[in-house]
Design a protein that fits this description.
Bound molecules: calcium ion
Number of helices: 10
Helix content: 40-55%
Amino acid sequence: MNPKVALLDMDGTLYDSMGNHADSWARLCREEGIDCTRDEFFLYEGRTGASTIDLLIQRQWGRHATDQEKERMYRKKTEYFNQLPEVGPMPGARRLLEEMKEIGLGRVIVTGSGQASLLDRLQKDFPGAFSAEMMVTSRNVTKGKPHPEPYIRGMQMAGVSPSHALAVENAPLGVESASRAGVFTVGLTTGPVPAAELYEAGAAIVYPSMEAFAEDFHILMFNLLTTSAE
Ligand code: CA
């Protein structure tokens, strides 16, 4: 293993945004007459909006969501999200990105989100950390996480194979997507999902926070490189 590129999830990894997402999904459900709990949305994290809407409608009414419903409801959910107070970068995320830059590790965003507002904010909150061409969003893929396609697309964009990539994820479906793409996956527990679920989804190593990962990043990289040299 010799990582050249980091594939980074956005919501719940670089941004502390999952609470706002859960709140806006729960509000959408209330208004649409769909039963839900706020916490369930932490488990759906990583799915595209369309597939979450399909899951909710199937459970409530026993049929698939129409394209029109997916579009209309995702637009509403996005609107509610944008009305909530702006979320900040995950503590430790800036430091991690600086450490990556310092050792020349490339950086690609791999997110299930298609929200232009969040993507724009990356440039503001992490100046110089990402380039606009190095982003996989829900617009670039036909199958979202937990399918491996988003991570495969990320590696294609960066021109690397799995042995030259490293993924960073906070949700079981995201970890599953990255590990099924063959990538060494770092799991972070940044919400209510326990570490055991991330290991079960395929994480190679799990840190209790982004700060803990940033703190340990050089040691992990050193270990990966020396292990592969042996
Ligand atoms: Ca995430």
